[in-house]
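Field log, afternoon session.

UNIT: design team B
ACTIVITY: writing a sequence onto a fixed backbone
BACKBONE:
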């Protein structure tokens, strides 16, 4: 066995006596372990929250969205639609006309986000798992239907079973003086509610309707849309598809992926994750400072032993390695235990969901977690660096003893 490692191991694992220095070393090891475990768990929770948001957005938003760079609508000509459908990787293309509108149902009214879509929207089957009541239907036998979010249902007290009470959508006419007393100031469309869906509070004010009704309500031309939503074929490279679609639509339109549309939320999650990681890193740093003090006191306690080692022919690098190894044993033992516990807690939470969200309205029961190898590697490297920094000065002091 390597002599510095053997001596360092003897210093740490000796059971002949437990001095204050020994207990301080054990406390330092526990501090490193707890900090490492907390860092792994918290980073995994943030990863889980990011993944959860992606899953939520995936149930309503498309893979790619084509929208105008200026203004809120553009002309989607048949030739443009044909070229987009022929682009490699494109599965479904849905023209969308979307804007805010006023919804009335009986004696209640509220502002909604009306999203007009064509018949192939339901072929995406995104809302199948989110349907609470009724059925997913937009048009049948010349009747226009609406699929409303649960928040709209609660605001207006809508019942999909009641087919006699229509959902009336109002939108201000362009060129008319705005007045609630002027009946000609609004375009009106009456829809029959076919179903109720719930995804997340972000989408609680949405009403889905046939695009023909939305265009009539908004005063759009037959080919005018606010966006084009594109579903890609499974396994398609999103970056390549995005570039190919951008080449088709030209410079006046922009193609955005689902992540591009929600980039601010992801940025906020990552910034919060960074600051929490820095905070927990300070806990590991404090434990590492305890390693510094314990090694410093150990150097004082073992001064006579160091002088004997020098008399027996030990060199300064050898003595330095002894105390560096001692610090490494304390830190790496704690770090390894912390990593194992952290990974174990995350795997248990992912499989069994021991820690609950604690809110009745939450869309999931337990806190989401997702282990990332890069986070585990970052935590290990961070612990090693702090150990080297805090162990170097006591080890150098020991090497300078004569």
């Amino acid at each position: 066995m390597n002599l510095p490692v053997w001596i360092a191991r003897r210093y740490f694992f000796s059971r002949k006596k437990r001095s204050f220095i020994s207990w301080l070393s054990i406390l330092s090891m526990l501090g490193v372990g707890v900090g490492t475990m907390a860092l792994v768990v918290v980073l995994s929770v943030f990863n889980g929250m990011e993944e959860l948001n992606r899953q939520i957005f995936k149930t309503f938003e498309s893979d790619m969205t084509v929208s105008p760079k200026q203004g809120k609508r553009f002309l989607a000509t048949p030739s443009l639609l044909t070229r987009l459908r022929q682009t490699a990787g494109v599965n479904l293309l849905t023209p969308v006309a979307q804007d805010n509108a006023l919804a009335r149902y009986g004696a209640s009214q509220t502002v909604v986000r009306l999203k007009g879509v064509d018949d192939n929207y339901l072929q995406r089957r995104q809302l199948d798992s989110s349907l609470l009541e009724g059925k997913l239907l937009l048009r049948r036998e010349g009747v226009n239907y609406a699929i409303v979010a649960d928040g709209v249902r609660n605001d207006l007290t809508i019942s999909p079973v009641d087919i006699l009470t229509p959902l009336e959508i109002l939108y201000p006419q362009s060129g008319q003086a705005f007045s609630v007393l002027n009946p000609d100031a609004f375009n009106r469309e009456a829809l029959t509610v076919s179903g109720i869906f719930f995804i997340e509070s972000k989408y609680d004010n949405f009403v889905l309707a046939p695009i023909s009704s939305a265009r009539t309500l908004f005063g759009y031309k037959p080919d005018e849309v606010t966006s084009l939503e594109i579903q890609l074929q499974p396994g398609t490279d999103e970056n390549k598809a995005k570039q190919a679609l951008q080449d088709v639509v030209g410079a006046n339109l922009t193609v955005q992926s689902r992540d591009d549309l929600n980039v601010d939320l992801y940025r906020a999650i990552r910034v919060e994750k960074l600051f929490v990681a820095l905070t927990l890193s300070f806990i590991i740093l404090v434990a590492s400072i305890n390693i510094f003090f314990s090694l410093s006191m150990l150097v004082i306690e073992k001064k006579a032993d160091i002088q004997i080692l020098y008399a027996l022919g030990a060199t300064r690098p050898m003595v330095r390695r002894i105390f560096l190894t001692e610090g490494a044993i304390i830190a790496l033992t704690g770090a390894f235990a912390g990593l194992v516990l952290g990974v174990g807690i995350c795997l248990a939470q992912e499989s069994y969901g021991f820690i609950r969200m604690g809110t009745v309205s939450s869309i999931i029961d337990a806190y989401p977690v997702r282990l990332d190898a890069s986070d585990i590697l970052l935590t290990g490297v961070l612990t090693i660096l702090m150990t080297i920094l805090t162990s170097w000065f006591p080890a150098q002091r020991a090497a300078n003893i004569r």
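LOG NOTE: The radius of gyration is 32 Å.
NEXT ACTIVITY: expression trials, pending approval
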